[in-house]
Amino acid sequence: MLNNDLINSKLDPLNPAIHVKHLSKTYGEFKAVKNISFSAQSGQIVGLLGPNGAGKTTTLRLLAGIMAMSAGQIEICGYDISQHLFEVRRRIGFLSGDTQLYRRLSPRENMNYFGLLHQLPPAQLKQRIEQLIEQFEMQSFAHRPVEKLSSGQKQRANIARILVHQPRVLILDEITASLDIISSQFMMDFLKQEKQRGCSILFSTHIMSEAEYLCDHILLLYQGDILDEGSPEQLMQQSQAANLTEAFLHQIKHYSQQGNLP
Ligand SMILES: Nc1ncnc2c1ncn2[C@@H]1O[C@H](COP(=O)(O)OP(=O)(O)OP(=O)(O)O)[C@@H](O)[C@H]1O
Questions:
Q1: Is the per-residue pLDDT at 12 higher than 80?
Q2: Is position 6 within any domain?
Q3: Ligand 1 near 96 CB (within 6 A)
Q4: What is the pLDDT of residues 172-220, one digit of tens each?
Q5: CATH no. for residue 223?
Q6: Does ligand 1 come within 6 angstroms of the Cβ of 52?
Q7: Which are the contacts of 136, defined by CB distance < 8 A and separation ≥ 6?
Q8: What is the arrangement of strands in the sheet containing 71-76, beginning at the earlier edge strand?
Q9: How far apart, in Å, are the Cα atoms of 23 and each of 20, 55, 139, 186?
Q10: Are strands 71-76 and 217-222 parallel, antiparallel or unpaired?
């Protein structure tokens, strides 16, 4: 078994895997994220929904520790990101549309490289890479340079790469955006499996049906603030909407009419 402490340690249910308090980010004068708070428990999938420019990517990048916050607090598995960035990075897997693999290396070589960065012992790393190749059905292309792979194959290799160190928390920014329906379904099944393993997953998407299918909890982000939150069912019930798209549009319209946009 690899990284036993990370896999087996059951998170205290009273201590969420992701805990965000009064988080803000400003770019110069512009407030991209405004004092938001939320948490995610072990085994929970939380979706970040919102129109273009709502602040989703900024929020996810702050949580992944690749951008500094302007104010607030982020804890991942009990570690404060401002004080324990290394411990946080050991526990998260972050993937966005911009994340690139080394294109001249094969998926196997990419996984090896990132595993070494995470300081996994070589024998364990080798075993883990083979596990991932099997799990993501990459046998036929694991040895080919990434630049010769299709988008779907690249995305599988990308996901496998962020799982090398068996993270407890996954932070995923629009990972199904360029995928066909089969590859998207593959990714969604994979997220469900990770949830069952006890992983906490925070992800953004513009695809409402995906959020409806996957999420235990949804944060509706608008102009850097949380407009509403709840389970997909709660959000639909509140707006008497037939689906999440309707519920989302209803909320934005409602707040605009009230003049109380964040
Ligand atoms: N580096 C930056 N400098 C200045 N403003 C930025 C920067 N990055 C993002 N912004 C602004 O912050 C706001 C939030 O951007 P962000 O990318 O977080 O939104 P998003 O919800 O992910 O949007 P999309 O769905 O289009 O990806 C936008 O108005 C954007 O223009």
A1: no
A2: no
A3: no
A4: 998 887 778 888 888 888 899 999 989 999 999 988 888 998 999 999 9
A5: 3.40.50.300
A6: yes
A7: 156, 157, 159, 160, 190
A8: 30-40, 18-27, 71-76, 79-80
A9: 7, 12, 42, 33
A10: unpaired
Which amino acid residue places its CA nearest to atom 29 of ligand 1?
Answer: 53
Residue nearest to atom 4 of ligand 1 (CA): 27
Q: If you average pLDDT over residues 225-232, what whole number do you get? A: 93
Q: Which domain holds residue 210?
A: 13-99+169-258
Q: Say whether pLDDT at 2 is over 60.
A: no
* Closest ligand 1 atom to 55 CA: 18
Ligand 1 atom with least separation from CA of 173: 22
- Does ligand 1 have an atom closer than 6 angstroms to the CB of 60? no
Alpha carbon of residue 87 to chain centroid: 18
Beta-strand relationship, 169-173 and 200-204 = parallel
Across the chain, mean pLDDT equals 89
Q: 54 CB less than 6 Å from ligand 1?
A: yes
Whether the CB of 226 sits within 6 Å of ligand 1 = no
* Nearest ligand 1 atom to alpha carbon 48: 21
Verify whether ligand 1 is closer than 6 Å to residue 25 (CB atom). no
Residue 31 CA to ligand 1 center (angstroms) comes to 10
| Assigned domain for 36 exists | yes
Domains identified in the chain, total number? 1
